[in-house]
Design goal:
disordered C terminus; about 5% strand; single chain; alpha/beta
């Protein structure tokens, strides 16, 4: 078994399970082609257990019933059973629940395989009865070992083939940590070489034999959200090089550039905000450029926006303030608009006092109606927005502080020791 030394090395959990002779239910979580099915089959062989494989993509409750019947028959013969469910996350809740009594009773050992996070995709009752093992993509060194074994098998079959160093390196990179992908590619290239009556492969021939290089990328799966998270956090962390790397990874893997453009606009608002309002303009501009030019020309605009956002001053003050305001409104309900803030388009409304005593800020000194209240009557004034001391927001913060101080001095409670505090600020 190549790979997974963190699970199969000396003293590691799966090695201990093999050596103990006591199998337990488990779930293998990892990307395609890292050995999930192989490990399950090796366990069945090691424990001399009946191996029953179910595909959650094609199977259903009938397959589960058949597996239970086969396990009962094997138990009567004194033999263990391992039921392996590939892509277990594809089973719905009822189908997953069907395994529970049999796993609980010990009728069979359950092994599930999933490319998706079991925390989200596997029911809690089944998850609590199985240990989750995370399988990792194979490293380039591990893929190189697999590469050598595959070439040795081809030579034993009378079809020797040689790869030069550049072709070998490209093919290992093309596999992108996926053993199955590497073995399939070797077979494709070997067949093409034999058809062309070649015994050696160089980089040029490799390019003609393989289809377009598509990295591992599931547009709706775990890898998708992990990579967009990495891109967003690289921008937030002011690392333009890492941000470019993740942008390139996602575009290389087939992510929709329009989706990335939308996320870049979100980053501009969430993580830069008023510290540098140009970020939003540049992000929106990049999205428009991509719409006009398409790929690959428009991707440069996305890259430019990502670099600018990563280098810009950071502030999530508006993001935090907006969430606070929403939470406050949801908790405190709908207070009526104060009379002096209401619109009065009719004589009746004016007669009822709508808009009375409203102070028009533009007519006040400095364009600021010091001491005016804008929250509803009876609602304590709140301080949601707290500018950070970075970029433009440092100046915004200084201005707001001055206005609040001026406003506090104009209120009837100006002599109170609490005047101008968070709860009394406009």
């Amino acid at each position: 078994m190549i790979g997974q030394p963190h699970l199969l090395g000396a003293g590691r959990p799966l090695r201990a399970a093999f050596e103990s002779g006591r199998p337990h239910s488990m779930i293998f979580w990892g990307p395609p082609g890292v050995g999930k099915t192989t490990l399950a089959r090796l366990m069945a062989g090691a424990f001399d257990a009946q191996f029953i494989a179910i595909s959650a993509v094609l199977g259903g409750v009938k397959d589960i019933r058949d597996a239970v019947a086969a396990a009962l028959a094997a138990r009567e013969q004194g033999r263990r059973t391992i039921v392996f469910v590939d892509e277990v996350h594809r089973f719905n809740r009822a189908q997953q629940d069907a395994f529970l009594p049999h796993v609980e009773s010990g009728l069979f050992v359950f092994i599930g395989a999933s490319t998706e996070n079991p925390s989200f995709e596997v029911v809690g009752a089944l998850l609590s009865r199985a240990r989750v093992y995370v399988l990792l993509p194979l490293s380039p060194r591990e893929l190189a070992t697999l590469f050598d074994r595959a070439l040795a098998l081809l030579a034993e079959d009378g079809a020797p083939i040689a790869f030069d160093s550049e072709a070998r390196e490209r093919l290992v990179g093309w596999a992108d940590g996926d053993a199955r992908r590497l073995l399939n590619a070797i077979e494709v290239v070997a067949d093409a070489a034999h058809g062309a009556k070649r015994s050696s492969i160089d980089a040029a021939f490799l390019e003609t034999a393989l289809s377009q290089n598509l990295r591992r990328f599931d547009k709706g799966g775990e890898a998708f959200y992990d990579q967009i998270s990495a891109l967003h956090k690289s921008v937030r962390g002011s690392d333009p090089d890492a941000a470019l790397y993740w942008l390139a990874r996602m575009l290389d893997g087939g992510a929709d550039p329009r989706y990335l453009a939308r996320r870049i606009v979100r980053m501009a608002n969430e993580d830069i905000g008023l510290a540098d309002p140009r970020a939003q303009e540049l992000a929106l501009g990049a999205a428009q450029v991509y719409e006009r030019l398409g790929s690959p020309e428009g991707e440069l605009a996305l890259a430019q926006a990502v670099v600018f956002l990563a280098c810009a001053a950071k502030s999530n003050a508006v993001y935090v303030a907006w969430n606070k305001a929403r939470a406050y409104v949801a908790e405190h309900g709908s207070a009526p608009v104060p009379m002096h803030l209401r619109n009065a388009p009719t004589r009746l409304m004016k007669g009822l006092g709508y808009g009375r005593a409203y102070r028009y800020a533009h007519d006040e000194p400095g364009g600021y109606a010091a001491g005016e209240r804008y929250f509803p009557d009876g609602v304590e004034a709140q301080r949601f927005y707290e500018p950070v001391d970075r970029g433009l927001e440092s100046r915004i913060g200084a201005k707001l502080a001055a206005l609040r101080e001026q406003g506090a001095a104009q209120r009837p409670d100006a002599g109170d020791e609490t005047a101008g505090s968070r709860s009394d600020a406009p």
